[in-house]
């Protein structure tokens, strides 16, 4: 694990604002490797904060390996080399693309257990209280770079058909079908959240980093819930795209998702 994986944000709201702004400029490529940052005084004027605040933000960036501070030479950007191509997901083809990623990436199993389904899982899946489920947490990697943290909940009577080792080597949808499950449909939602300490360590990002959050409920031909997925994705390795079409007339003209067409993910 890299040293910056569990880097804590600097203390103070203003220092965090400076830190996150500069960090985002570096990770987005707006500030390039070897580029010299403006002076502390200039940064203080730009952000409307004190030099002490700027110094705290820069110290956190230096601890995270994003900049290097050298006496007499200023502060240099130390952008991390690109570890792999960012996955671009089109909303219309999201499921097939996620399946493909499961087949072309590797997984590391972090935990595996059986227990009562949490209330939010039981409610979403339509389970009776205290329904026993298999709970597995995995990290998926592109090359050696982790890009997703996945926790799945599967009814125990289904999960008993495959082993802990199977989960570490085979995509879950294949294990479900191999167990005789006839998958019919799924519903998923996408949002955002912040990385807690454990997830930050697993994904090799700083604590408090923004993550894409995906929740998916998979049902079989009888309408029974067979999988609940809670997925967290690094936004620097993953993005969602949606094609839009201009529709309507006059003042009612607006943007509308182009459903069922390939928007040409980059």
Kindly describe this structure.
The longest helix is centred in the N-terminal third of the chain and has 15 residues, at 13-27. The protein has nine helices and twelve strands. The protein starts with 12 loop residues before the first helix and ends in a 9-residue tail after the last strand. It has two domains: 3-77, Orthogonal Bundle (Arc Repressor Mutant, subunit A), CATH 1.10.10; 87-241, Chorismate lyase-like (Chorismate lyase, 3-Layer(aba) Sandwich), CATH 3.40.1410.10. With 266 residues, the chain is an alpha+beta fold. The chain is globular, with a radius of gyration of 22 Å. It has a six-stranded antiparallel beta sheet with strand order 4-5-6-9-8-7. Strands 1-2 form a two-stranded antiparallel sheet. Helices cover 29% and strands 33% of the residues.
List the keywords.
266 residues, 12 strands, 2 domains, Chorismate lyase, single chain, Arc Repressor Mutant, subunit A, 9 helices, alpha+beta
Helix-strand blueprint:
Layout: H1 13-27, H2 40-47, H3 51-63, E1 67-70, E2 74-77, E3 87-90, H4 94-104, E4 106-116, H5 119-125, E5 132-142, E6 145-155, H6 156-159, H7 164-169, H8 172-178, E7 183-194, H9 197-203, E8 210-220, E9 225-233, E10 238-241, E11 244-247, E12 254-257
Parallel strand pairs: 3-10
Antiparallel strand pairs: 1-2, 4-5, 5-6, 6-9, 7-8, 8-9, 11-12
Helix pairs in contact: 1-3, 2-3
